[in-house]
From TrEMBL:
It catalyses: Hydrolysis of terminal, non-reducing beta-D-glucosyl residues with release of beta-D-glucose. One of its GO terms (molecular function) is beta-glucosidase activity. Its EC number is 3.2.1.21. It holds the Pfam family Glyco_hydro_1. The active site is at 378 (nucleophile). Keywords: Carbohydrate metabolism, Cellulose degradation, Glycosidase, Hydrolase, Polysaccharide degradation. Belongs to the glycosyl hydrolase 1 family. InterPro entries: GH, Glyco_hydro_1, Glyco_hydro_1_AS, Glyco_hydro_1_beta-glucosidase. The keyword Secreted does not apply. This is Beta-glucosidase.
Length: 472
């Protein structure tokens, strides 16, 4: 979710904002079907975006804490220092989840909160927070689904090379073991990484995200390959630590299409698809590298690397927001630029609303990768929400969610193996380089008034969907 444009940078905002929207058929009279009885409903958040307490109870700085302090990095000058103050408002937030009636919650563990230096010494106060979170969730009848890494690498590890170092393989593996030792008696479903391709592209290629490295194509591929390797090592470590776990990872998956029918735009789409979608999917599911990336990746792939990358998972977490429509544009990352928007609906972020792309990507998983079990771990939209006139009547968000759930039903009808859906996000939060300007939450957070929580109309709508199984 990035906003900067340089001669090299290709921002996530721009790539999404340039995606073309296929005409949507009117849904008048369309009767939504009921989702399966065993379908999992939930919400997702991430530690760096909601927890706050950045310097409390032994937490060390993450790369986002450091990045946000650099002038000009965050659109509104905000930082994750307080965020939603979830660290102190834990009980209130779990009550909000309980009010939705959801069955599961995907959150992330702040690595520098529990292992301040990234490796070695652990922080008891940090682990105690996650003990409370897990215990309160279980008491509320909500299944905890932690993600080990949602972009907030300990700054201490960044200073040792971060994801550009192969040492990161051992760092993540050791951290995974520590997390399982502490919480594995109560947590049986784990995700390893969140959106490794996004973190590599915008954190290590264009520099628009933390840690702010404008490393170009080499930086992207090196960081992404090392994340894929570390993921394989962490999966194996968790399986060695405890049997019977359900293990997965979270990918941002979006159909990539060329802006025009020209050969150069077609080739640009192949390159972008290879980095955004295929390097993670092909490595994880097949133990291969997309052909178009072989010449560049040959610099970093060592013998037996792909055997480690191809470590089986039980569940794919899929984050979906829009298609990517791209064109050939020399001088930008991968020589790929964004296409002109052809959509008739956009979010406040400038992203087009393309629910059918969700179905398209699920069908790709079915036909190309053996129809693995999938949990939609993020889907949502930013709109201009304002509670000053009374309740937040966010009808555009309701329409967005409904249309995507209807597309998801179509995918289920065509045999896609989808196990559940999690809305992004429970709360308005620190939205990375955009700061607090973009609101994705089902719950409005008043950042100027003690972080007061105000459920939006979409909260009540989603509660009804969870209760009935019908996205009406």
């Amino acid at each position: 979710m990035a906003s900067g444009r340089s001669s090299l940078a290709l921002s996530r905002r721009a790539i999404l904002g340039g995606a073309a929207l296929l005409p949507l058929l009117p849904r008048r009279g369309f009767a939504a079907a009921r989702f399966p009885e065993d379908f999992t409903w939930g919400v997702s958040t991430s530690a760096a975006q909601i927890e706050g307490a950045a310097e409390i109870d032994g937490k060390a700085p993450s790369i986002w804490d450091v990045f946000a302090q650099q002038p000009g990095r965050i659109a509104d000058g905000g930082t994750p220092e307080i965020a939603c103050d979830h660290y102190h408002l834990l009980e209130e937030d779990i009550a909000l989840m309980q009010g939705l009636g959801i069955g599961a919650y995907r959150f992330s563990i702040a690595w520098p909160r529990v292992v301040p230096d990234g490796i070695g010494r652990q922080n008891e106060q940090g682990w105690a927070f996650y003990d409370r979170l897990v215990d309160r969730l279980l008491a509320a009848g909500i299944k905890p689904m932690p993600c080990l890494y949602h972009w907030d690498l300990p700054q201490a590890l960044q200073e040792r090379g971060g994801w550009l170092s192969r040492d990161s393989i051992a760092w993540l593996s050791e951290y995974a073991r520590a997390a399982c030792k502490r919480l594995g008696d109560r947590v049986d479903t784990w995700f390893i990484l969140n959106e490794a391709s996004v973190h590599a592209i915008f954190g290590h290629g264009t520099g628009e995200h933390a840690p702010g490295i404008a490393g170009g194509n080499d930086g992207v591929l090196q960081a992404l390959h090392h994340q894929n390797l570390a993921q394989g090592a962490a999966l194996r470590a968790l399986r060695q630590e405890r049997s019977g776990l359900t293990l997965g990872t979270v990918l941002s998956l979006q159909p990539v299409v060329p802006e025009t029918e020209s050969r150069v735009d077609h080739d640009a789409a192949i390159r972008w698809d290879a980095v955004w979608n295929r390097l993670a999917l092909d490595g994880l599911m097949r133990g291969t590298v997309p052909e178009v990336l072989v010449p560049t990746l040959g610099k970093v792939v060592q013998p037996d690397d792909l055997d480690l990358v191809k470590t089986p998972v039980d569940l794919i977490g899929m984050n979906y927001y829009s298609r990517c429509t791209v064109r050939h544009e020399p001088g930008r990352l991968l020589d790929v630029g964004w296409g002109r928007p052809h959509a008739d609906r956009f979010t406040a972020y400038g992203w087009p609303v393309e629910p059918q792309g969700l179905k398209e990507m699920l069908l790709q998983l079915k036909t190309l990768y053996g129809n693995p079990p999938v949990l939609i771990t993020e889907n949502g939209a930013a709109y201009a929400d304002d509670p000053r006139g009374g309740p937040v009547q966010d009808d555009e968000r309701i329409t967005f969610l409904r249309d995507h759930l209807l597309a998801l039903q179509e995918a289920l009808e065509e045999g896609c193996n989808v196990k559940g859906y999690m809305a992004w996000s429970l709360l308005d939060n620190f939205e990375w380089q955009m700061g607090y300007k973009m609101r994705f939450g089902l719950v409005f957070v008043d950042f100027d008034n003690d972080r007061k929580r105000i459920p939006k109309a979409s909260y009540d709508w989603f509660r009804r969907v969870v209760g009935t199984g019908i996205p009406a």
